Protein 1
Amino acid sequence: MEMSQYLEVFIEESKENLQTCNEQLLELEKNPHDLAIVNEIFRSAHTLKGMSATMGYEDLANLTHKMENVLDAIRNEKIKVTPEILDVVFKSVDDLEAMVLSIAGGGDGKRDVSEVVAMLLAIEKGESIHLKAESEIAVAESPVENASSIYYEAFEQTVIQQSYEQGFRCFELRISLREDCLLKAARVYMVFEVLEKTGEVIKSLPTVDQLEEEQFDHSFVVTIVSKEPSEDIEKKIRKVSEIDQVTVTEITPNQLQEQDNQLHTAEDSTAQQIQSTDSAEKVKDTKSPSKPSTPQGNVSSKTIRVNIERLDILMNLFEELVIDRGRLEQISKELKNPELNETVERMTRISGDLQNIILNMRMVPVETVFNRFPRMVRQLARDLNKKIDLEIIGAETELDRTVIDEIGDPLVHLIRNALDHGVETPEVRLKNGKPEQGTVKLKAYHSGNHVFIELEDDGAGINKERVLQKAIQKGIVNEEIAHTLSDRQIYELILASGFSTAEQISDISGRGVGLDVVKATIESLGGSITIDSSEGQGSLFSIQLPLTLSIISVMLVEVESEKYAIPLSSIIETAIVKKEEIMNAHNQRVIDFRGKVVPLVLLEDVFDIPKESSDDEFYSVVIVRKGEKMAGLVVDSFIGQQEIVLKSLGNYLNDVFAISGATILGDGQVALIVDCNALIK
């Protein structure tokens, strides 16, 4: 298989290994004497190094190798963990992440890491950490005479070792083509033709695919095992036209051992040995140059990786099936054929099960978002000179992938806000009788058809008077209304556009861009955000999100001759109200609903529907809620509950008031989906 087919897997697994490194480094900072944590980091780094080398990303492999050396010295207790050393290792992981992102974006993964490499070398040698001069770095990085110039994965090292035991020798050939060479791929092919008759190729840099596509300058490296003398091999290669230079270096197992002095776990060694044997057999059986292969997984693995685009296509197809299912149910009711009814009912049950499976396939743990926050909190706490502990609860809670992709940035903003405005400095906390270390809790959990994400801190809380003054000053509320607001309503004023109580602009928050961006993003996902706070004790931001955005349960209603869908997640209950029970307050029609005054909203007025004369004595009302606020939506009749496919109105109709989308009903009609949040607001 071509190496390009492995690229997506390589990127995903590299991100996972780097995330493990980040998480475990944070744990190591808390428990610097726990060598089990060091071993965990080492294993992730070692896996990343092997994959990088196999894929031909030598810069990535080399930096990971330098980081491994430091980790190995720590686990062998030659070096003690210090904050300065951890800072350098964190910096290494940052650079590795940047290189992986470069590769994911179609780049080559190259990056200037000379400074961090110099510091890693200094740590390994027991020297004080400082940035070395370029000349010193050059000396430290220069290859030892006769040493290998490329990195060999464990299974390749084993092949070389076995070859020596059978009387072969291993040579690394650095070959340069002439600058004016026009057909580089053809010359490379001729070189490989010569080498096939001389020995067995076990590695090339760049890879065989890259060489064939001429994705190299003028030089390449080939490693072969052969029984012929190096001089004879060199002479044969020089006979190929347009070869400028050939350098042959013998590579021995001892030299490779010095290059990679890392220890492997018994499990890793066994797996690599099996792969080495398989690779050696493939080398003997093929006439073409061997291509580096990716490490094989456990043959009993029951999971596969699926591109999210394929799941989107599957979801779109199923949505069409749901629409057709609704149409069949409609036809079945009209025809009243027992056999058709039975078949449709069975299809409905099966498609319902299929729907659950497809929706679950799209579900992703919020851990994929939460994982980035411990490292971010560590750095921000240091920048703010605060001591803050981040607790994560319920990271295994699952959300639709579409929601996951959108929720990350709002959470980043909320956490930055909590750290900057919420948690106090150690001095202030001690003065107020609190522990000097503040706590920020990030919690996720399921409740019904929703997921709740809560961010709680034990900081200073929200100053109500200050918020009110700022809101009045900004013109968000007037003084008359300000004194009638509840505590929660006051707290939620900080979600208004342009609201900020920061006295000084900082890099953390308080740049005039309030939390309105957070609110807008969450509401665009069909969610809501509420705020509770206790001055001097802390604040709680609670986000409510739908499990999925594509297929939702609704109540179908009729207004005049038009049909509308109201999401069940917003509905408290339905009611029949006598017209004589309707009252007026502040020029607004209201009803008494279970002891609460609830304003009425006539959908025919909101959507400007042509009215027909009606002498009905009753109103059909759907009571909806957003947070603590309620409203009664007046309709003509209730049709019933149904699962519908949510379709966007597109860019041309994205500003239609109080409509969040549309759906196609079983009879082929289009029903608009009511945005209850907009109506209540």
Protein 2
Amino acid sequence: MTKTISSNIGYPRIGEKREWKRALEKFWNGDSSEEELLAETTKLRLNDLKKQQDLGVDLIPVGDFSLYDHVLDTSFMFGVIPERYGYEGGKVDLSTYFAIARGEKEAVASEMTKWFNTNYHYIVPELNHAKPTVKENRPLAFYQEAKEKLGIDGKPVVLGPVTYLKLSKGFDEKDFPQLLKTFTALYIEVLKELEEAGARWVQIDEPIFVTELSAADIELARQAYDEIHQAVPKLKIILQTYFEAVTDYEKVVEFPVAAIGLDFVHGDSLSLIQKHGFPKGKVLAAGIVDGRNVWRADLSEKFSLLEEIQKYVDSDHIIVQPSSSLLHVPVTKASEEQIDPIILGGISFADEKLQEIVALAKGLRVGKAQIQKALDIASAELELLNNSPYRTNKQVKESLATLTDADVQRTSTFDIRLEKQRQRLNLPLLPTTTIGSLPQTSEVRQTRTKWRKKEITNETYEQFIKDSIQKWIKIQEEIDIDVLVHGEFERTDMVEYFGEKLNGFGVTQFGWVQSYGSRCVKPPLIFGDVSFDKPMTLKESVYAQSLTERPVKGMLTGPVTILNWSFVHDDVPRFTVLNQIALALREEIEVLEENGIKIIQVDEPALREGLPLAADKKQTYLDAAVYAFKLATASVEDDTQIHTHMCYSDFNKIFDAIDGLDADVISIETSRSHGELVSTFEENTYKKEIGLGVYDIHSPRIPSEAEIEQNITRALATISPKQFWINPDCGLKTRKEDETIGALKVMVKAAKKVRETVLATVK
């Protein structure tokens, strides 16, 4: 009898029906008190812990829960609060917590960016002038809560010091050694209290070790963990990595910790163990089940993998767990009643993944024969899906096989296209536009829900969408925006909407995951070959254009973003699926162009997100992304203007790829780090047109005219006014109508003022 145990790295925060989201937004809207918010979220948190306990998970994470973001939680634990919030010491209150995340009055929100290569966003810590101390021991509070309320001896989870600092801003790299020393002392303080409270295991998340770190940084990290080990020698620390294989494997596995957590799904960790072995006496926390996708694990294959690992690691030194936190997948498929049973049998959400993990751990502990039934069921369900008609579309396969280089090239170069587009569109200098979506009010959402429930007719719903489009075309004209949008009132989500209309896709009822703050998305399932069925955006685009003489953009989500924001079946190469999506979108773009849409925006907010963390995989991905975008967009005429939009793109690192997209106009979400992004253009030459977001749409505050003028002027110091577009950071669906109208009025006023100044200078 061996001692193999099961473990979870992290659990979704949002609740089975997004109870967490509703509690937060109720509080933000002033409809509940802080006490009520905390009571509701405590109830949800305890329910999630109890569920994991009932599923039989041995090591249950505590402290992985958050009211907004776990990186922000770490900042608050150590009192890392930007000066502009007037923090004077002591425990940080909840109003300041949410103000940093969302912005408040004159205080700009902290920068938000993608968590490694996922669609989760974290709040970037600002270390300028920080004097960190332990303000509250959050892991301890959660550990004691689980123990006292549920009798769970949980595994506290904390974000590690190396990763926290490497994700921070506001310090010089030469200060990293001293900062790490400072924070290591604070972590020791937290860990000592956990040890004294009886905690046996603690999970310290260090995903930064799967990226390229210098030898000096690795040595500093080792020293930090030496200090931690000496301070709390009895505490069993799991140094947890995920999202890729550890770059400096041989060094990291020798760190003085009880266990090392490795990702065996997204990184080739098995090869590292086979080549270099694994330290005797150390526990391997093996991430066997995919924590980022929803397809059912082939348990026979996973068990074989565990048996291979056993050749290098003793069974009583193996923990079976997901490859990463289950934050990135929906909670449970138990409530899904409308999915084809063949597809439903092939998917696995958080709760089902924990069942898989518990079964695999049991198999190692008591023998494969004891879980043979579970292995057979999983194999049968997967075989049924893999052999279904969904995956045998011959026409799609033939279309991909006959592609040529000409299919991914525009007819003319950008300078020729630009001249034709300017003649056709006749836009002013520094044209203003928005990114696409307009406020999705409660009325919009409720009307859509009634339509889906068949409580109103198709005709009634379509008339409501038309009325909403007409209302906002008029508002945009009154504000005097140059290039308009129809508002996307018919769309729940920019990817799910297309998932409902393309062949090979399916959507769930409750498959929500957190993106940022209370913003949850419902990624569609790509379970088969993808193909175009019928026009998806034509009706609304043509109607909107009929209401105005100003150009209205056709709005599509790009192939890379649809791929990255979907749960893609994993038995076909991802880039093959990517090109299937691109071909389907190509047909939609051609239909829009044929019906008089002059500007077509193909959004790629997730292009940077999908970039592999492993250096040797990055260029292959970027080449595939560029190819797919061009495959979708290259067939239009010269005078049709192709736009694209990107979120927090880390532009400098993928500059060549973005230029290679050959989009006529690109807009980038930059307002929380505007100056840093603009500096990219001091180092690179970009000849196409570009819009850098001039205000932050994630914050409810209305920016001042001076702020927007400053952002525009800063950009024009390095970007020609003939290239520059003026737009908000991102889509406006999450903002209220009064916030949106107020901010857009300020934006247009600032744009006109700068335009006059520029024109006067030219004259």
Protein 3
Amino acid sequence: MKLKALLVDDEINIVRNLQKVLPWESIGFDSVETTSDGLKALAYVEEHNPDLILCDIRMPNLDGLGFLQKLNELGKDYAVIMLTGYQDFEYIRTALKYGARDYILKPINYEELENVVTKLAEEIIDKRMEQAREQKKWNSVMNLAYEKLLHDVLLDYTNVSVRQFLFNDEHLLEELEYTLILVDLDEYSHISRNWNEKERKLRNFALRNVLQDALSKDELNYAVLQTREGEWCVVIQHTKGNNPNDINKMQMWSHMLQEAVHLNVKLNVSLGIYPKHASMHELADAYKKVQRSLHLSPAKKQILVLKEQAGTNELNYSMWGLIEEIVTALKQRDQAKMDQAFSELNQTLKAISEQSVLRVEQILHFLILHLVREMKEINVLSDEEEAALWAKLERSISVKDLMENIHQLIHTSMNTRINRKPSDTFMISAKEYINKNLATDFGVEEIADYIGISCSYFSLLFKQQFGETFLEYLTRQRIELAKSILVMSDKSITQIGKMVGYAERRYFTRVFLKFTGMTPTEYREKRETPIHE
């Protein structure tokens, strides 16, 4: 971090000596400019914004004290050292009152001046670095807030007024529109049955990172949001009017996403494209339409462009509404609403079966898969219960069998939700947040605010639930994930550290060594057998 200095004095020999005698470069300055009076200095400051100013008190046109007053009017904090040949206490006191950081008497003691300049330079650099850290943290918080807003809007969790939010200094959210691409893991039910929790967490994490990097070369402004296990939305931001709908570009981006996943994670995904830009208020509807269309299409490794047909079948439309009501009732723990929606769904499916039994079975299989994934998102279905469910479905071939399984599934999850304590719900949300944000720099404040409780209450609940502090748990999760990535990929130690939330390799290595007893490189060398695909 290099600094700029400005020397202001009407005595040309003094400014030349100041330029030559002090070791400016070793102190941290790569630019040292001069000027002869306060007015010229003020013009230079407004244009170039120097970090340090050495200024004489006695000068023509605008003296040093007047210059200090004008600097104050600019509203910025400048580091100013006053040079004076007058050992007059009133001059010095006035200069300090106007914001001078120090003063040096003429004739100048250059050793003393070097010490003062060095001290101020260190203070300026420390302040700059702290500001940069705070800005980075603020940007991270803003990005998390924006992604959370998009996530909640997609899932129709909020009726937020976009006028309340700013994405950056230039654009209100209402001036933006989005391309929506849904990415869905093929063979989800098979994969879910054969992966344990650790493998699922690792694959979900890796897949999101691949999606996040896949379009980076196109310099797009986009977010990758995991809407549920095995499903992500890639939301690409545009300014209204600047980017017309281009379905060829959308398909190109989709191919890039699909190929990146297959190449890096060795998994297949299908993608659904909403064919036109959607406003913030249209995202939830766009997401549901693409999701329904993609899940009812039997093909794998496909890229499907949504085609909205006129005169949508009324029974199908009613069925989708009832499915959404069931999911909503499940989340809200509303037993009456659940029973009513399920009864109406039964009647609707009977009406559809009169047209096509095969169509009903296809819809029911989707409904079960849909509910299983939703239940996993809200943690009301254990791995054992899920395995038992898949075993039953393998033996369930009739519509009646499928309906009975759905009914049992719903009531099992409803009872789990009703019997769960509020504190358990808070901690489930905390665990989900941690799993989805391991690569992000966040602390207790951010996660407590996300859940909606105080930091102290969060810390208490967390220790009770997990038997360790939040920081201990977070660090352990990051190191466990790093261990898996080390043996499954050839990414560098620095890259892996960043993937699990450590920006500096040295700090990542130190934490890894503390938890495992070896460095990341040593761990990778000792673990030659990768986790099976």
Protein 4
Amino acid sequence: MTQSMDFETISMGEYAERSYLDYSMYVVLDRALPFVGDGLKPVQRRIIYAMSELGLSAQSKHKKSARTIGDVIGKFHPHGDSACYEAMVLMAQSFSYRYPLVDGQGNFGSADDPKSFAAMRYTESRLTPYAKTLLRELPQGTVDWGPNFDGTLEEPLWLPARLPNVLLNGASGIAVGMATDVPPHNLKEVATATLHLLDHPKAEVAELCEFIQGPDYPTQAEIITPKADILKMYETGHGSIRMRAVYERDGNDVIITALPHQASGSKVLEQIASQMRAKKLPMVSDLRDESDHENPVRLVITGRSNRVDFEALMLHLFSTSDLEKTYKANLNVIGLDRRPQVKNLKMILQEWLRFRTETVRRRLQYRLDKVDARLHILAGLLIAYLDLDEVIRIIREEDDPKAELIKAFKLSEIQADAILDTRLRNLARLEEMKIRTEQIELQAEKEEIEGILLSRARMKTLIRNELKEDLEQFGDERKTQLAKREAAQVFDETKLVPSEPSTIILSKAGWVRAAKGHDIDTVGLNYKAGDEYQDHAHGRSNLTSVFLSPDGRAFSLPTHTLPSARGQGEPLATKFNFKHNMLPISVTCQLPNARLLMCSDAGYGYHGVMENLYSKMKAGKHVLSVPKGFSAMKPAWIEKLPEAHVVCITTAGYMLVFPLEELPELAKGKGNKLINIPAKRLKSGEEKLAATLAITPEDSFLVHAGARYIRFKWKDLTNYIGHRAKRGLVLPQGFRNVDRVEIEKD
């Protein structure tokens, strides 16, 4: 028994691999990537062909879009009507296509919202004059035809484009394992470069770029990509294009008159407004959209005064909004070999010239065949006119006049049929003269066509003249200008925020808030039930607040973003991830270059700068290594470096003062031993480091023990000054249970 169903015997893996490969090739070749010849995807090609079959030329009346889409999906493209209609709408949008192929009547969307177009039952459409460059030579034998999806009709496999439409309108699409992003270009520039390559086949990409400045999007925004990068993009087929909005100054107003391609004015205003709400643009007082029919783009940004640095403001907005956009460039197209490939500019133009040459050759050959066929018929008619009486006799008397005519005059069947189809009124003497005149004209045309087909030079001349003809008819000036501009730069937020005195309050439950001013009763504030005061710091609103957890992790937030002290604040746990629920025990707010003393109650520490504690991570930054069973202490500010000394006091009442220079400067770590605490007492928890302070010989400080305190001046520290890691001396009786130490204010 023969095996007739081979597919049942293959493995599932092989079947899946083969099916996926077939699907991938279909998506690549028949859906997502444009053909280098006409620059169209299949759905676009079918829409244009269906419209031409409906007689919707640029001179005809508009017809309902639903009628067009019905023909497209019913005859050529069996997919969703909405997707097909959207493809047609895109070809009609002057803000999406550089040279639209469809002339729409009705709501076809707006630049602000391209997908706001009306349903196809409401809109009407026809082809634009430019679409004629794709269709003019279609009936002249220039393309191959294939069956449609159900085999009842034939459709063109490509259109005979007279211009390199693949570059003019560009294309974008995502296939399987590859994508394409061909930017649009100016017709004059591309046609001129093509003419140059036609005359100089060895011209390199750099030479062609003397004619093609860069992409030309359907917007009047500026391309700010350096020319070297644009050249590299054309040489490799990969790159990116950066576009920037165009604006002008009018007093305290900045008026934006052009947006980048596919940028929405309403979205730009929302992006700027959100920054204003977040108090990131204090120099902007108002936003307005004054766009209308006369001014399609007119966005007004009003500054608070004429002292505003508008140049810096716009550079910031270019960086943080769609006033500046980047577009990928990936010149991946299907070549004449029906294979997808990323091509450089020269390869695309070379292939298109080969395509155009073959199209013209097929058009000429088609016409030559028509001329030969007509000359053959005219030769037979002329023979009949020379012996008209015999022709009439044969037709009247013979049973098979066709066979008798062929035999008598040595005619072909085609010639005999032409004679038999001739009307009686055309048997006049005048017709013989018309035939001879037509013969002479057709013979001259035949010789002309044969001469072009046999001469490469004449073929190039014909292609050149036709390119120039279309260039003069459809060429226009660039819309997108190239400009050399300063790079966009985001504002430093700390420079935008006003520098106001702030008090940052931290509670034991990890809630934080900030109050204006430094004269705040932090302990007497209202706290949540079960919560109470933990720590506070005096700083400024334009600085960063750092919260230190017991395990030595630092967490930072901009002070101006902290909630107001009018309420009870917000929990830091919503902003950070605290390991083992180790909530912060202290808060610090100093200048980034401020020097801090970092230590743990195990008696180890180092000094470093404030900005080493900054972190953007939710898990914080491990800045202090704390031995197990001990805790980090609040960083102490070191005001004066050269003569600064470190004061260390233990829970047993021992105090040691030593020069800061004996401590290492680190970015993070455990540090060195500050004061000598017997290991046995330290391990048992009997004695720990209770307080630290950084002082200078000009300072005096207070040591608090309960309700009592003792003042130390520099002259009082003679017996306590020593070297790092020494034991120090015990404090006076009654001050050995230290609560805190602080520098005495003047």
